[in-house]
Amino acid sequence: MAKRSIRFGIIGLGLMGREFASAAARWMHLLELDFEPVITGICDTNPAMFEWYTTHFPTIQISTTDYHDLLGSSAIDAIYCAVPHNLHQQFYTDIIKAGKHLLGEKPFGIDQAANRAILDVIDHHPEVFVRCSSEFPFFPGAQRVFQSIKARDFGTIIEVEAGFLHSSDIDPNKPINWKRMIGINGEYGCMGDLGLHVAHMPLRAGWMPRNVRALLSNIVTERFTKDGSKVPCETWDNAVMFCEVPSDQGGTFPMTLKTYRIAPGETNTWYIHVYGTAQSIRYSTRYPKSLYTMTYKSGDRQTWNEESLGYSSAYPTITGGIFEFGFPDSILQMWAAFCDELINGRDRMRQPFYCATPHETAQHHALLTAALQSHQQVRVIPLE
Prior knowledge:
- Helices cover 29% and strands 25% of the residues.
- With 384 residues, it is α/β, with parallel strands linked by helices.
- It folds into two domains: 4-132, Rossmann fold (3-Layer(aba) Sandwich); 148-323 and 353-377, Dihydrodipicolinate Reductase, domain 2, CATH 3.30.360.10.
- The termini are far apart.
């Protein structure tokens, strides 16, 4: 099958830049696709990052410390941009104005004003395709949850819980990084960095909260710098948002969203639980093969059933169904969805689940801005 190449530049060559590049290198893992990403340009302020990329990707034509070099190149069709939050507005708007398609990182602007500025530029450039990174909904279990959401299998929804839990910041001796600095990370703290992962699936389901009551925690208030001195940690470690969500059937249901950087025993756990009067479903990447469901009819026993999922991805791959799905696989699936929608349009995608949209990032910012206000004022904040 002839494949259309999408020539990508990467801005920000750290952890997630490498993950995307490795996904492009594994593209033959995917089956029956008529498109493929090709890495043709890289950019980082640290030239020492170039070697890994240029060693493994002979297709690279441009290596630069100035991202404008990528934007002005005719050898690049699209950009993956993974830079700190304070750079999102300038970088994303420059990329869009240059006519390059964009997959940007969350939160898609350091605050609501920055997000609105980005979306305003998107509105003025409808020819440019823009999406936001969010890979966890591409796990097989998450896809099964979404299929149940679409099928309206739950009866009356009783409650929804979703979260993303880290434990990497529990060590008080971990040196400070930019995610603990308001000037770079923003006032959202953990909510900005982790929140779209948590909100993507609920927002796609149409569960935009009516209001929110948030409790935010700054647990480790000081950290060491590289020179051994202590400085304040300015951003929130943990956040829990209690939301009231309008129901399709009238009334409301509660939804609890958690973003924790200090969750003892958790390394990188994403989960969603939906409880209903007819069916309930639970999935967590802590147990990635296990999907828990309970179907209930009048007089039935209330019994949870565990299903071992194996490898059942949105886009078919060479991997046999008896094997296990992991984080690199979710990255590959997300990139397939981005490229699929870019080339074929949403109506002709090989599968129906698309990447997080700019509109969903705006909803996310509205929620997080209200959460900050809620914590500060110790009250419920309306979003309608």
